[in-house]
Amino acid sequence: MLKSLLYSALYINLGLLLGRVAGFLRDVLIASNYGASAEADVVVLVLSVPDFLVNVLVGGGLAAALVPSFSEHAATKRVLWFQSALIVGIAFSLLAVILLLKLELVVSVLAPGFSPSQVQVAELLLSIIIWLVPLTAVTGVMGAYLHAHNRFFVASLGTLVINLFIIAGFACAGDELEYLYLVMVFALLGGVARLVMQFAAGVRISGAPQTTLKHWYVSSDLITRYVQVAGAGCLLLSYPMILRAAASMLGSGQVAQLTYAQRLIDLPLLLAVTFVATVLFPRMAAAYFSDFRMFERLTVWGMRVTIFSSALVVVV
Question: Cys bridge to 279: 8, 59, 82, 107, which one at CB 3.0-4.6 A?
Answer without folding.
Answer: 8
